[in-house]
Amino acid sequence: MDSAALPRVLVAVDTPSLEEAGALVGKLRGVDVGFKIGLEFFSAQGLAGVHRVVGGAPFFLDLKFHDIPNTVAGAVRAVSASRPAIVNVHAAGGAEMMRAAAAAAREGADAAGAPRPLVIAVTVLTSLDDADLGAVGQQPPVVEQVVRLARLAQSCGLDGVVCSAKELPAIRAACGDSFATIVPGIRPAGGDVADQKRVVTPAQAIADGASFLVVGRPITQASDPRQAALDILASLGAPRARAPP
Ligand SMILES: O=C(O)c1cc(=O)[nH]c(=O)n1[C@@H]1O[C@H](COP(=O)(O)O)[C@@H](O)[C@H]1O
């Protein structure tokens, strides 16, 4: 998958309802955004529902696999046949698991004659801060754990990481510019933070080098989701050059 062909803003379709998801995608038709389908929708509607909602549009299938290498490889192989642009696993699953996931994405896509999805590692969830790390046996600061996991993911052949925008400069310094960074925890200035702890504005995240932004509630819960998406895109300035289809 050529990541340059994906829109920079991926809207998180977080609902169990096929009707609500379809209505949201419909409202955003013609707006330069892609879609991220996660555990909430997938658990209710499965892959068939995903395809009904996104149609032929590129999508990030965010299932955050975290299990033993053989199980994760089987899951990644299975979903890679269904043409996601991006799939993800938890970096905390370890090196062997990530290497297995990278190989399985290739195998699953090849067997289906599909393009290989980008395989991305979740580092430290954006709902956690320094104080939360100790409780799960990890050493703060968050940025050091994120960079440790990003280096590990890169050494295992993964294409990039999910992180907050606060860690982007450190990841760029450690992993270089061609390593993809997918950034949730996006909030327009003054927006409701809700359960997110490491939040940054869309424009700041792009200025700091994010490859893609994942935006959920600031768009999906807005009174006018289409206008909210357009406002976020406008705040990002000129679109980056996109690869021809
Ligand atoms: O992998 C993700 O997409 C993800 C990782 C992470 O660390 N934090 C995070 O919020 N996400 C996802 O990004 C989306 C953020 O949604 P909002 O907080 O509503 O913008 C949700 O769908 C989360 O599942």
TrEMBL record:
<feature type="active site" description="For OMPdecase activity">
    <location>
        <position position="67"/>
    </location>
</feature>
<keyword id="KW-0456">Lyase</keyword>
<feature type="binding site">
    <location>
        <position position="187"/>
    </location>
    <ligand>
        <name>substrate</name>
    </ligand>
</feature>
<dbReference type="GO" id="GO:0005829">
    <property type="term" value="C:cytosol"/>
</dbReference>
<feature type="binding site">
    <location>
        <position position="216"/>
    </location>
    <ligand>
        <name>substrate</name>
    </ligand>
</feature>
<dbReference type="InterPro" id="IPR011060">
    <property type="entry name" value="RibuloseP-bd_barrel"/>
</dbReference>
<keyword id="KW-0665">Pyrimidine biosynthesis</keyword>
<dbReference type="GO" id="GO:0004590">
    <property type="term" value="F:orotidine-5'-phosphate decarboxylase activity"/>
</dbReference>
<dbReference type="InterPro" id="IPR013785">
    <property type="entry name" value="Aldolase_TIM"/>
</dbReference>
<feature type="binding site">
    <location>
        <position position="217"/>
    </location>
    <ligand>
        <name>substrate</name>
    </ligand>
</feature>
<dbReference type="GO" id="GO:0044205">
    <property type="term" value="P:'de novo' UMP biosynthetic process"/>
</dbReference>
<comment type="similarity">
    <text>Belongs to the OMP decarboxylase family.</text>
</comment>
<feature type="active site" description="For OMPdecase activity">
    <location>
        <position position="62"/>
    </location>
</feature>
<dbReference type="Pfam" id="PF00215">
    <property type="entry name" value="OMPdecase"/>
</dbReference>
<feature type="binding site">
    <location>
        <position position="126"/>
    </location>
    <ligand>
        <name>substrate</name>
    </ligand>
</feature>
<dbReference type="InterPro" id="IPR001754">
    <property type="entry name" value="OMPdeCOase_dom"/>
</dbReference>
<feature type="binding site">
    <location>
        <position position="14"/>
    </location>
    <ligand>
        <name>substrate</name>
    </ligand>
</feature>
<protein>
    <recommendedName>
        <fullName>Orotidine 5'-phosphate decarboxylase</fullName>
        <ecNumber>4.1.1.23</ecNumber>
    </recommendedName>
</protein>
<dbReference type="InterPro" id="IPR047596">
    <property type="entry name" value="OMPdecase_bac"/>
</dbReference>
<feature type="binding site">
    <location>
        <position position="196"/>
    </location>
    <ligand>
        <name>substrate</name>
    </ligand>
</feature>
<feature type="binding site">
    <location>
        <position position="36"/>
    </location>
    <ligand>
        <name>substrate</name>
    </ligand>
</feature>
<dbReference type="InterPro" id="IPR014732">
    <property type="entry name" value="OMPdecase"/>
</dbReference>
<dbReference type="InterPro" id="IPR018089">
    <property type="entry name" value="OMPdecase_AS"/>
</dbReference>
<feature type="active site" description="For OMPdecase activity">
    <location>
        <position position="64"/>
    </location>
</feature>
<keyword id="KW-0210">Decarboxylase</keyword>
<feature type="domain" description="Orotidine 5'-phosphate decarboxylase">
    <location>
        <begin position="8"/>
        <end position="232"/>
    </location>
</feature>
<dbReference type="GO" id="GO:0006207">
    <property type="term" value="P:'de novo' pyrimidine nucleobase biosynthetic process"/>
</dbReference>
<comment type="pathway">
    <text>Pyrimidine metabolism; UMP biosynthesis via de novo pathway; UMP from orotate: step 2/2.</text>
</comment>
